Structure formats: C-alpha cells, structure tokens
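Methods — Computational structure assignment.
A single polypeptide chain was analysed. Its primary sequence is given first, followed by the predicted tertiary structure written as structure tokens.
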Amino acid sequence: MKSLRTRLLVAATCVLVVFMLLCGAGLDQAFRGSALQSQRDKQQGLVYALLGAAEADDKNMLRISIGALPDPRLARVQSGLEALIFNDRGKVIWRSPSFAGKVPELQAPEVGTSLFVELADRFTLTYGLRWVSDSGGIRLFGAKPKPQRYTIAVLEDRNAYTAQLRTFRRVLWTWLGGAAAALIIVQFIVLGWGLAPLRRLVRELRSVESGEQSRIEAGYPAELTPLAEGLNTMIIAERNQQTRYRNALDDLAHSLKTPLAVLRGLVDDRTLNDDARERLREPVDRMQLITNHQLRKAAAAGRRTLAEPIRLRPLADKIIGALTKVYTEKAIQFEIDMPGPLRVRADEGDLYELLGNLLDNAGKWCAGRVQLRAEINNRTLHLQIDDNGPGFPDDADKLLTRGVRADSVTPGQGIGLGAVAELVKVYDGSIELGRSELGGACVKIQLAV
C-alpha cells in the first residue's frame, strides 16, 4: 500500500472492526448471562410455587393436584415445561401431566439448595427438601419424626431462550454493522479532509515540475508549512546554484582562452625551430582537449527534479536546420517522430549537446536518411537515432570512450559519442549502439528525467 490515505483507512477500519467484534462479543456474553440468570430465577420461582401447592396423600407421599398447578403449561403435554418429584432413592413419585418421555438423570442437591444445569435441549433446576409428617399436618423443613427426603425438578426446553438470544443477536449485529459502516464512511470523509493539504501540495509540486508555476504558493497547516517553505528554498537554491555554476565555468573558459591562444601562437610561430614547435604542439593540443572535456563535463547540469521542463521538438528542429546547411551537398532527409508537447526535465544545454552530437554523427555517416524518435514512458526519456550509412564496427562500444574514432580519415576529434556517453551517465541513463532497420547505425538512449 503506497497510498498514505489507504494505509490510514485500512488501519482505522481494522481497529474499528476489532473494536466492534469485541464490543459485540461482550454485549452478547452479558445478555446471555442475564438471560440465563432470568431463566434460573423463573424456574426457581416455579419450584417455590410447586412446593406451596404440594400436599401429602394418604400414604404420606408428596403430591400436587392438577388444579393446584401454578403454571397451566404443566398440565399440557409437550408444552415445553415439566416438573418431577423424586424420593430419596431417586425414584419418580410424581410427574406433571406435561411430562412425556424418558426421565433424565439429574443430580440431587443438598437439602435447601438448588442446582441449575444447562443441557443441550433444556434447562433443569433441582431443589432438595425434607418433609415431616405428624398428627398436626405436614411442615416444611421440619425435624419431626419420620422425615422424608425429596428432590423436586423443573425442566424447560430452550426454544424460548434460543429465540430470544437469536433475536437479540440479530438486532445487535445489525446495529453494530450499521454503526461500523457509518463510522467507516465518516472516517473516509475525515481522512479526505485531513489529507487534502497533502494532495494540494502534491499538485503544486507537479505544477512546479511541469513549469506551470515557479514556486509553491498555497497556504498550508502549521505541520506542513516548514515543508512547503523548505521546498521553495530548495527550488530557489537549485536554480541559483545552476546559474552560479554556469557563470563560473564561463569565467574559467574565458580565463583559459588567452593563455591557450598564446601557446597556440607559439606552436604556429615559424620563427621557432621545428623541433621546439613539435615538442610544444602535443602538450598544447592535450591541454586544449582536457580543458574542453572538463568544462563540458562540469557544465552538464544533470537531472533537475524541480526545474521547468524543456520542449524537445524545437531543439531538434534547430539542430536539424543547422545540419541541413552543413551537409547541403548530401541532401539529407531528416525524419522526426516525437510528440510536439513532449517536455524533458533537463538542462537545455545538455539536451542541445546530446542531440547535436548524435544527429551530427548520423548526418556525417548517413547515405541521405536520418530518423529521430523520442518518447517518455515511466519518467524515462527514450531516444533513438537511426541512419542508412555503413553502421558501427563490431567493437562499437569502444566508440563510447572519448577520443576513439571509427574512421581516421573523416574529419573529427572522436569525442562526440564519448561526450554523449558522459552526459547519459550524468542523467543515470544508458546508451546502446547497434544496427538500424535502415541498414546503418542505431543509437538508443534512455535518460531518467
């Protein structure tokens, strides 16, 4: 995820979803515990009601008449509510008319205590008690002669509980899901509003790169103001530094011009003997070559990120116009294939030297036809120059070394392709020499611009 907005949105959404899940799980657990407690209290109350309606028969056995049942469901078969009474040996001595089926195995609790159990299909609550019978009647929890130990059980199916829990969960997750969706939309809007200054800064930087404006103008929040000011300072410093470099190099070239001219005059002075002139000629030529090379190398501005881009087509037209006059006798047909609006973020002088050397080399060796192609893909300039001349030799890569020439007869110092290779290196690019579809040489260049 390269987008800062996407990262924040995904992170916030993950936190929100986890929070909603934990919140929903907590509420579900709380509701379930409350529902279970309510179920237990209801069955506990029913046990007390059954005890209030219980009486001993003529055999001194605990019984509850149908008319005295506290809940009408106990008298209706398959109503989901059942009641049992066990003696001290675990034998059923009374069952409600609603009971049908096999008697479950239930644990008998201590006297005066209850035991609530949640089974797979029902809830059971058992209560332990002791009855005493005497001539005065039956008394609960008595300590009279002939005590009887009983366990009363109330069983209720889970249908009502399950339906209640299902309804609660449906409502809970519907509201939580709706709230989560609403919060995601809100945070999407908030992130868009909060990151708007960054998007505006990016648009301004692109406008500076495209030459539509010279600096960052808009006002920004306090957190981004130092960044905007720093970018403006960097833009101005880069332009001023480039200007200073060029002025210093011009001064240097002017300062070296006179001493070299004097030495060149001594070399051409016929009054000196031939031996002295020959001894001076080689170091003077070498000095001239080194000076030109270093000045050209230092003058290469290289890629300038925040500089105004240069239109490439006018430069190419200007160079081709000059070469047409130079090679008038060859009547060269120059073909240009590049978009008119194509703009390159590079120094104009560097582009002029690059295209000049390549087109001049192609015009010098061609048989009347030169093609120039240019396009930009993924912030990379692709240049290709083809001609229909004899092409490069097998060891063409050696020509990228300054001073190496493919032919010693044709005039030239052998520095054209070498200078191009140095410029390409400055721009973190690549150069490839090969065979053209026209039958001659082909030069392919890629520059990061």
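Note: Residues 310-448 form a domain with the Heat Shock Protein 90 fold (CATH 3.30.565.10).
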